[in-house]
User: Fold this.
Amino acid sequence: MSAHSSASPYVIDVRSLPKRPGSMVEVQRNISAPARIGAEMIGIPAGGGIDVDLRLESVSEGVLVTGTVRAATEGQCGRCLEPVLGDVDLFLTELFAYPDSETEQTTDEEDVFRLVDDAVDLEQVIIDAVGTELPLSPVCDDECEGLCTECGVRLADAEPDHGHESIDPRWAGLARFTESGEASTEPEGNAANGEGAQA
Assistant:
């Protein structure tokens, strides 16, 4: 959790923030997401705007980042696959440890974010927070009935009496035989015997 690109819109330079504990700066920024963020069925689209309103505060072990992240989301209903539009609004609290600080030295790399080149990189912080906040299976409506399992039509758009006749597979052959109108009342064996007698 340390590498970053200075060209990334998620990177905030903190060189102007004094390292004296209690020093603070506020940052408001609109980030255009370079790539999609979120779950499989819903997320912040690539190019979507992410509004961040943050406070960066110097503490003894690093820079404490707190504040809000807001963005519009789009996806598909997990029941009927109709488009779902919404938004995500979450609060961040994350420490970025100073190089050579006790926190940096005593914490596994994957368990703490670090300042690199006097900058904080919010990309993974936002990705993790958004992924936790969004539902895995969003719905267009809590009452959504989904799709018909037989034909795939959206049940909300179907006729009130929509349904499909279901025939027990054990009787399916008999049903086709009856519909053909070719049912014979003479047992098959007797017919064969009669043919033999005529011969």
